Amino acid sequence: MLSRDADSIYWMSRYLERTSNIARFLDVNWHLTLDVPGQFGEQWKPLVITTGDHSDFEARYAQESKENVIHFLTADEKNPNSILSCLIAARQNAFAIRDTIPTEMWEAINVFYHYSVQACRNPRKIINDPEKFCAEVKWRNLMIGGIAWDIMAQDEAWRFFRMGRMLERADKTSRIVDVKYFMLLPSIAHVGSTLDYAQWGALLRAVGGFQAYRHAFGKISPTDVVRFLILDHDFPRSILYCLTEAQISLHEITGTRIGYFTNPAELQMGQICAGLSYHTIEEIFEQGLHEFTDDIQARINHLGKAIFDTFFSRIPAIDQSAEQ
């Protein structure tokens, strides 16, 4: 497979998954405005901080209000990580490889793009009812994922698609957890309060895991929610599940057995998966949940660079196995 085609399908996948996760970020807060009346339900600044675009937001917006944050994350073309900007990038990448991906996938992405462009022409409708727009974004992403799973040949293109999707999802799940634990509670005194449990419930709904969690654990417990979203082997949006699936796709692309490495991407993927697999929830809380998720995000960013250097860069990556 040509590296430029692999690059396009990898980033197409990541941008699509990013739109879904931004919609889920918004869902966390939107559900909180419904479940938690008053000032504690109206906190929008954490969403901008956790996406890493706070400086850009502050430079162009006067207030961190609901209206400004929703517009920034959905319809702002100057924000490269808004839903609209990500869809523009995803469609450009899909167009470049429309002979590689199924026709149905290209058509679904194209329709998704035009729907979002039309919706973002009237951002006031999105601001007034973000739940409707976010639900549409999530459903269309689920449809594209279903098309990929059902009719896409499971060749190298599929594996790059799957790897990009899983890495993006792992990163954003860690950020969603960070939104809740590090940013949303007004003070340490609210830990264990009704507000605290309402926020954990909203978090589970945002990742689509509320029912799965209740079947596995029953009542909501912060420790069990964190275990479920980080260390669960079966929930498709847990960080460990996503990184394990990404590792499988990576090694299917290279043909290297898991447990061995022949390039920086395999080395870093192995290190992050092994470290996460042998972490306990007690160790995570001892380290500090924010510190842990921050470290995961940094590792995933370094892994993304290693994947670029290994597969997409014109300058070939150094084979680190030769230095062992």
Write the layout of secondary structure elements.
Elements: H1 3-35, H2 45-51, H3 54-60, H4 66-74, H5 83-96, H6 103-120, H7 123-128, H8 130-151, H9 156-184, H10 194-206, H11 210-217, H12 222-231, H13 239-254, H14 264-277, H15 281-287, H16 289-312
Helix pairs in contact: 1-5, 1-8, 1-9, 1-10, 2-9, 5-6, 6-8, 9-13, 9-16, 13-14, 14-16
| Count of DSSP strands | 0
The largest β sheet comes out as: none
State the secondary-structure class: mainly alpha
Q: Give the N-to-C terminal Cα separation.
A: 29 Å
Strand content: under 5%
Supply the number of helical segments. Answer: 16
Q: Care to describe what's here?
A:
There is one protein chain. The protein has 324 residues and is an all-alpha fold. It has one domain (3-311). Helix content is 73%, strand content 0%. The protein is built from 16 helices and no strands. The longest helix has 33 residues, at 3-35. The chain is globular, with a radius of gyration of 20 Å.
Question: Short summary of the structure?
Answer:
With 324 residues, this protein is mostly helical.
Defining traits:
mainly alpha; disordered C terminus; 16 helices; globular; about 325 residues
